[in-house]
């Protein structure tokens, strides 16, 4: 039994390393992204093996799902930038030499083979061999040093006993949620700030354009969205609520709701509401603002910022998680759409 | 021997290997998408070390290390999202999404000043 | 919490953190008023900070702990996240506030279009707030998030000018930052694996000089050295600093690299001090020497003013790395190093913002064609010169006092040190002198055309803030030579000082 599990672990780790290697060695970007999403899903399995179902859920939803969607839409945009005439009738323009990394002949040949077909492969040159061994020496040496260090470490219990001792006053029944929203709520607040900041940064770079042109959606996607949207919303709300006593919580719920928004924008790019930029700004900030505002109570009443009164801890945590979920979902959709609304500059 | 190789001991080694593998990709590859993927793989390596540490021994897994990982994943996706937006922005300006090594064109003489 | 720490200080610590987060949040929610929110908030926060410094100096001698530690949420370490406030924290908060306020007043005239302002101000406040939160944090994992917040906002600000150089520089800066942060985080993971805590003070009590500490120190300090642009990890700096909007350049050169240096010092003082060996000291000193010489030479041959200023930052970071050996040789001398970093932070912010003013006025910053503008803009030239004098370390400036104190500390420590360190001390005296000489050369290169005969042309009119703020910062740096005692007094109350 033990040996079988050990074998599973070894195979899983080897698989992860192999997929990561193939991903990073790839010369076809689309392939690299697909391998990366596979990598994320394999990681989720690894997290289950490490008794971390919450993280597995987050990895699948955020690490593989949202990151994957962002990567794919980025590839679409890059393709569009490098070959703006794609989809035009008639002969395709000559392949743009800068479209490939350093004038990679292979990629240009591929471009030429698919004139105007709309599936120009985004590729990049293989890395030149010069410096290969020094890079291998650096990273290999680092890996060995790290492993040697890890091998010397003892098996401490970490902070598990401390968390267990304080669960009864945390306001929730799930250890990770207690850590995230109570014991280390400051980390979570700053993490919300980080999500917001990514959105602000992307907005500062320019206005959003329409999503890149894509083939007219067939009947499948809108139909599927009609079915999936309610399911996603129910799942999101369930995850949010479940977080207090079981795997789940604001970030997973936000990711699921964000994914629903992304699906909707994919299926019907022109029916997405273009909200008033003022409302949008307030929407993406509201989660963190609400969190901080409620936390100020502890600053004045003592003992410190972000203290929840014992008997109010559960409702406060639920309110904060709801706000965080909505802001996260909104920011994720905004990041997918791209830059800021043109109306903001008016 | 097999007893000592519980997941909590084994996986941190895998995390170390992933970190180094990602670093190798970051050093070697020039295309920004691949570099961003490499950074994400490095991050996954760190998370694996954290979660492995959390699962060490026979006690229930350490919720603090797991919570840190969750936070880390969200921070990583935020940074990735911004990096991708910056990549697209750079590609709009230059026509490619590659950072070539060596000094940049900072020594160019004239440049119209900021908008 | 120690009973002797007054409630008012605990409140002030929490309030500083709340304001550092609240101001950028408000500005992000309502960018249409972000400039007003920022200027008003920054001014008020400086008043609050000065009051806190007063409270702290009043209470510090009677406190039985070297630092105010506030467990957020009412949870003490190791379960909760701790804010850490001591003399070093307050000094860095003050530097950040001063550079940010000067930069804000400068930016009022520099960032003109209302659409640009709406993007600039929230990010600008995030940079200030993120650095404040970094300085206040006393928890290894929390530090990682604050590092990411500070670097993401800095990168977005660099990219804001929107030209190819700026965006390329921003991209490179982002990758370096991500690498540095992850390296830091892996170090924190190793420490957590060994000791089961993340609080810096508790880690300091548990850590010795085992393999985990060594590896963690290499990863964390290496990541931070990369972000601080210490040679040979400095490649990104010149592009990012030279192509960013001028107030951002000032903040990057004046405060951001200083914050990374702060964190190196904090980790060293609290956790990694037992790892100090002469070999490490010499290695860091050699890196510093290389940065000093290389950065200065680049500054001497760069064709553009802002690039000269940016390379001078590489050279100055080399100075600071030169000072690391003193921390190992004579740990009690570190307040001098911070004093030095403080004076140089102000001076570098002055030089970079002054360069930005000239660039804006002339429409370019080619060294060989700036003469007419230099001759017509005496105020800005004076700011460049005054800041430069502080960088050179001429008498009566903060830079001079800092170098004098550094030399004294080095010589003092050398008397009973092992021979290798004595030899190092002498090399070091030579390097400090050589660095000053090179700094004189590149500062003269910047301002000399102002004294040549020729036509005068003030160029495009610039706002009052763009004229006066570099001067104010340079005057501040110079004044530290005359009135540095209060800062040294503040720095004496810092955790980890034996």
UniProtKB/TrEMBL annotation, chain A:
Span list, region Disordered: 83-119
InterPro entries (UniProt xref): CPA3_antiporter_subunitB, MnhB, MrpA_C/MbhD
UniProt-annotated location(s): Cell membrane
All residue ranges annotated as the MrpA C-terminal/MbhD domain in the record: 15-79
Keywords, in A-Z order: Cell membrane, Membrane, Transmembrane, Transmembrane helix
GO cellular component, one term: plasma membrane
Pfam families reported in the protein's UniProt record: MbhD, MnhB
Topology class, membrane: Multi-pass membrane protein
Residue spans crossing the bilayer: 6-25, 32-50, 56-75, 133-151, 189-206, 227-244, 250-267, 279-300, 312-337
Na+/H+ antiporter MnhB subunit-related protein domain: residues covered: 224-339
Domain of life of the organism encoding this protein: Bacteria
Main subcellular location of this protein, as a coarse class: membrane
Family recorded in the similarity comment: Belongs to the CPA3 antiporters (TC 2.A.63) subunit B family.
Protein known as: Sodium:proton antiporter
UniProt lineage: Bacteria, Pseudomonadati, Pseudomonadota, Gammaproteobacteria, Chromatiales
UniProtKB/TrEMBL annotation, chain B:
High-level lineage: Bacteria, Pseudomonadati, Pseudomonadota, Gammaproteobacteria, Chromatiales
Matching Gene3D superfamilies: 1.10.287.3510
GO cellular component, one term: plasma membrane
Keyword list, A-Z: Cell membrane, Membrane, Transmembrane, Transmembrane helix
Topology of the protein relative to the lipid bilayer: Multi-pass membrane protein
Keyword Hydrolase attached: no
Protein name according to UniProt: Na+/H+ antiporter subunit C
Family under the similarity heading: Belongs to the CPA3 antiporters (TC 2.A.63) subunit C family.
The UniProt record lists the keyword Flavoprotein: no
Residues annotated as transmembrane: 32-55, 67-91
Signal peptide range in chain numbering: none
Compartment(s) of residence: Cell membrane
Automatic annotation (TrEMBL), chain C:
Keyword field contains Ubl conjugation: no
Domain of life from the UniProt record: Bacteria
A molecular function (GO) term: NADH dehydrogenase (ubiquinone) activity
Cited Pfam families: Proton_antipo_M (PF00361)
GO biological process, one term: ATP synthesis coupled electron transport
Keyword field contains Transmembrane: yes
Residues that span the membrane, as ranges: 12-30, 37-57, 88-107, 119-137, 143-162, 174-195, 215-238, 250-273, 279-297, 309-328, 334-359, 380-406, 426-447
Keywords: Cell membrane, Membrane, Transmembrane, Transmembrane helix
InterPro entries: CPA3_Na-H_Antiporter_D, NADH_UbQ_OxRdtase, ND/Mrp_TM
GO CC terms in record: plasma membrane
Compartments, as annotated in UniProt: Cell membrane; Membrane
Residue ranges of every copy of the NADH:quinone oxidoreductase/Mrp antiporter transmembrane domain listed in the record: 137-413
Membrane topology annotation: Multi-pass membrane protein
Family, as annotated: Belongs to the CPA3 antiporters (TC 2.A.63) subunit D family.
Name of the protein in question: Oxidoreductase
